[in-house]
Amino acid sequence: MTIGRSEAADITVTADATVSRLHAIIERVGDRWVVIDNGLSMNGTFVNGERIGGFRKLESGDSIRLGKSVFVFTDGQPSEDEKTVVQVRLPTRDALTDAQYLILQALCRPYDSQTTFTYPASNWQIAHDLCLSVATVKTHMRALFKIFDVEALPPNQKRVFLVERAIESGVIDYHDRQSPRPVIR
Asked: What confidence tens digit (pLDDT) does each residue in 76-110 have?
C-alpha cells in the first residue's frame, strides 16, 4: 500500500501539505508488515518517534508519523489498548515562550537530517549566539524536552529528537533555521 498526497496513493492524505505525493509504502514481507521510506519523502517517516531510513518492521500499535499526520498501525487483531483511540498532539508555536522559541531556533539552526554528521547546537553555542548563560539555556532546554515529550529518551538522543519534533510539528521551519542570529537586548 502506498501512502501520500497523490490521488493515486492507496492511502491518501490530502489535508496535510507536509506529506509528500508518494511518502511511504506499507508492505507485507513474509509474515511481517514493514513501512518503507527509501528517500521517498521530503519530511521523513517516523515510527514511534524514531525516524526510519529504508524500512522498519511494524508491530501492532506502532505510531507512524508522516509529516504532521499520525497513524496507528494494527495487524487486524487490536488489543484492548489499541481499541482506545489516542490523539497525538504535537506542540504549536503558541505552547512556547519567546525565550524558548529563540533557544529552539538556535538549537535547530546547524542541524540537517539529510546530511551525515550534523548535530544540533550545543548549550554553549546557543548561549554564545543568544548572549545568555549556559545555565539559562539548560533550564529552557529541560522545559523544551518536556514540552516536546522527549525527556524520557537517553541523553544522547534528546537533542536530535527535539529538533526533529520541532521541525515535524511546524514550530520551526527551514526559513527559521536559516535566519540570521537574533539579537536579544
From this structure: 665 555 455 444 566 788 889 999 999 999 998 88
C-alpha distance across the termini of the chain, in Å: 53
- C-alpha distances (whole Å) from 86 to each of 5, 37, 70, 79, 100 are 23, 24, 10, 14, 27
Cell of 17: 501539505
CA distances from 133 to 21, 55, 127 (A): 44, 42, 6
By percentage, how much of the chain surpasses pLDDT 70? 82
Alpha-carbon distance of 149 to 65, in angstroms, equals 15
Do 159 and 119 touch, CB atoms closer than 8 A?
Answer: yes
